[in-house]
Design goal:
By secondary structure, the chain is mainly α. The chain has 2 domains: 195 residues, MFS general substrate transporter like domains (Growth Hormone, Chain: A, Up-down Bundle); 181 residues, Growth Hormone, Chain: A. The protein contains 16 helices and no strands. Helix 2 packs across helix 4 and helix 13 runs antiparallel to helix 14. The chain is globular and about 65 Å long. The protein starts with a helix and ends with a helix.
Length: 412
Amino acid sequence: MPTKVGVTLAVIQLFFTLTWTVYVIFLPQLAAQVGLAKEMVLVILMMDQLTFLLADTAMGVMADRSVRVFGRLGRWIVIVTLVSCLAFLLLPLLAAKGPAVQGLFLACTVAWSLTSSALRAPPLVLLGKYAALPALPWLASLSFFGLGMAGALAPYLTVSLRGVDPRWPFALASVLLALATWGIVWAERSLKQSGTPAAPLASVAAADASDTSAIKPPMAPFLMAMVLLGLGFQIHSSLNSAPQYLRFAKPADLESLMPVFWIGFSLLMLVASRLAARYSGVLVMGVAGCVGAIATWLSTVAGGLGLLMAAQFVASGAWGILMMSAFTGALQIGRTGREGLVTGSMFSLLALAALARMALVAAELNKDSQVAPLLHWLPTGAWAAAGLLLLGMAWRLRGAPVAETPSPRASV
């Protein structure tokens, strides 16, 4: 049953990420229809990331509160997601009405960004509520597998949807996501019926509080590492990868080369989930960060396409392992009752990294003769620093017992 939950979340993440892909593909066209200048497209995308930055943590806290007060989360996620799908569906319909509805169009983008945060931290809180601790790495990897699939499909969609009426992809993406999200209600109900109900949150918290020997990873260094990792990922995937491929390939080849990153992300993450289950999530993150730093360095200095593809594959796998083990670490830090706060903060910081990358592009620093060469090495430096920070945390926590889940909850 837990594996079915992971597959359900993977499908939801697939369709959710594809909605973002469709949005980015058609946003320039929609913005032009409502009379917005070309430069405003990047401003809107930055506004979206700023909304994610604020909303992801807020949604995580609301998820914690929903579990604590109502003992359930699935219906709340579905309701907010349906509002998000409606806002997404309206975007091309409003754009077709022209500049007269420019303000309403912008308000609709904010509403979509705000409500879409319900599909980031809250579903992970659902896993943290019902799944036994050893199963979390595998379930997290299944969930993020959907993200990897969507990332691999993005280059093909960019080409395939060229010239298509945006109302159709927006409608299809909205309907598919709305239907898939109902699976969360099924998953929550099935998990409740499949075994002993989860222990009340207050009793779980009391049990953990009574275990004075249990030591959790410190939250501040963990989140600091996530900022560095997220920034390195943004620069590597969005700014460095395509130019690196173009040293050895033609622009038309990027459609088949860019998915290498997300294929490695998905496959190596699934394989490494056993390591995160056996060892500390912080330790696995530290090792993956250092391996990723080496791989991004090899991507920069590669002398041929074969070595570059191999380095990209390893770097992407490292990022997948980092995401999977970061969730495992976040659940450990947030136990109990703060899972949403920590995972929401994690996603907020990833949004901050994306916002920083967009701000860098908006300021055209990536074209500056003094700054541009540094960007080639920034992912390596950021991932190495984060990896060493996490390894230091793992060293400090070595031999320390980790707070265990009380038996009623672990039996699910």
